[in-house]
Amino acid sequence: MSPEPPPLPGTWTAWALSSTWQTANRNRPELANLLDGEFDRHQRARDGAFRDRLVASRAFAKWFAFRVLGHPVRLVKDARGKPGLADQDGQPVPGIDFSLAHTGDVLAVAVSQAGRVGVDVEVRDRPVDSPAFRARACHPAEPTDDPVRLWTVKEAIAKARGEGLLLDFRTVRADRPPPGWRVHTEVVADRYRLTTALGPWEKETA
Fold first, then answer.
1. Rounded CA separation 76/35 (Å)
2. pLDDT tens digits for range 123-144
3. DSSP count for the chain of H helices, then E strands
């Protein structure tokens, strides 16, 4: 399988069912190489389902990055925990940004050579809408008729910026992304909302 032409220029996003990748990779003998710096985390975890998801998401991410870049990669994290790609010597792959997400039975990965990228995936009927949610996550002027779409857009932007949940989501509008940002969102596997956000290489966009 080759990556599909990207809806965002220079950016590739893919999703897969985690159960497929769990079955194929659960008993791999070289788990330490597959998981890179997360092998100890895998070994410490008592929850078998968590271990399976960790293995599946990292196997899928490495496979997809190889399909896009044409060479094997290692998965690394920066000082703030944002995932990235490195070569086999541990040196960051220049000019490439990377993001991954998973929820339920879906894995998602994004690779970009065009800027900072973030990906998020959520169940479409996740009951997130409430007065507390709107107060915590919504800009006063943005529409909230599709709260899961709203959340995935903001989460994808936050991941791309390397801020995660530290970002004040009330300062970002899902219907009007920050200057220089583009968003692509779609429904996958019938019941999941998948959103990719692409922004400039600079950390600050405002």
1. 10
2. 999 888 888 899 889 999 999 9
3. 6, 8
